[in-house]
């Protein structure tokens, strides 16, 4: 056991005037299983790069362990998997690799196949297995779930729960809950470390915010009451001041000693009220700095002329001569929120593309109602680059509406001036979702919309779907999301 100590850490990118981190202090135990959470663009991956020594910074990061990063870069994916793993962890024995990948439900024969022939999920699993065999290293795991199907997420979460010595960035609530014992959270105003999983952290965070909101409300009342008292005190002081000429309103003479005593008393009371008001304001200023405001999103789905929008009969996707999935039959009616569920490589995205009119070899029939308007969110964001204004012009988006949606999804105005290629993975995905929300459509087809998206925005999107009841066809592996929004699950 050893500690990683962060002392007075400050960092900003050379092209930015704003600090990502400012005078940050905390420490973590290298035996912990640490979940790392925070909204998109707050600096989670940046912090990983600081630990890895990739950026210069102010302050200190003190550690006796070596850091390693997942996803591990594989330079030549044409090599057999066992060669890749031996390069990744040269001190491990072959039997150790077989043991670890068996825990992750990967077939032993995968070791003798070219790495590039493994599915994305299999690649994730075998690289995690190899990296955990590197003794004396602290593993920085960045969004491992993006290439894992629902079953794969359960397997990897269970695997991580039996390990120690890692920091995990993930926004999948069930996944994080299953494998961590501490939470490192990047909040609006600070960074906190807390014992427990995501659910216990969220419960404590919400309780703290509720307490601060109640305290803030009471302080607001106190400040108003003190302001009124100050005004009354000022009125009394003016009356006393007027009496210093030695006469009362009736014209009779007054006791000068009494007037002086009363003036001093009024002055003392006024100073006391002013001091109490200042203390209340200072206490109020320390509250609600970490509150996460999630404004409600809006959507205007179009109503279709008939109840049924799409019908698939015995559809199976083909890659060459190979049939990928067992034939499936389902329909989409107005108000349906259909989730396609299945393992990686089972043809889910291909079925979405078939409905979008793409040319994909298949069996069976795909029937779309005439005049159907579809809005599509692509799984991949790697093509996004250039200025936001060019993106808006290219897709003929309502600019004020589009930017208003992005602001509600936690975009700072400064992001509008950046090249899109500099956005975080979550910010790029939000860009595609915001575009879809600007489009009036009969059917919304979203392919893994929550990849990289932070927890607060996930809940925001869930509330949007529940409120406006759009007709949707979705591929998504986040279990909480599926349970909350799906009206129908079609298993492939």
How are the SSEs placed, and which strands pair?
Layout: E1 3-11, E2 21-29, E3 33-38, H1 44-51, E4 58-62, E5 66-70, H2 81-88, H3 94-103, H4 120-132, E6 137-142, H5 150-161, E7 166-169, H6 173-177, E8 182-186, E9 191-195, H7 198-242, H8 256-285, E10 308-319, E11 322-323, E12 328-333, E13 337-341, H9 348-355, E14 362-368, E15 374-377, H10 388-394, H11 399-408, H12 425-437, E16 443-447, H13 455-468, E17 472-475, H14 479-485, E18 488-491
Parallel strand pairs: 3-7, 3-8, 5-6, 6-7, 13-17, 13-18, 15-16, 16-17
Antiparallel strand pairs: 1-2, 1-4, 8-9, 10-11, 10-12, 10-14
Helix pairs in contact: 2-4, 7-8, 11-12
Measured between the Cα atoms of the first and last residue, the distance is: 45 Å
Largest sheet, in brief, is:
6 strands, mixed
Strand order of the largest sheet: 5-6-7-3-8-9
Q: What is the name of the CATH class of the largest domain?
A: Alpha Beta
Helix percent reads 25-40%
Radius of gyration in whole Å, from Cα?
Answer: 30 Å
Number of domains: 3
Please report which band the strand proportion falls in: under 5%, 5-15%, 15-25%, 25-35%, 35-45% or over 45%.
Answer: 15-25%
How many helices? The count is: 14
Low-confidence segments, given as residue ranges, are none
In CATH terms, what is the fold-level topology of the largest domain? Rossmann fold
Number of strands: 18
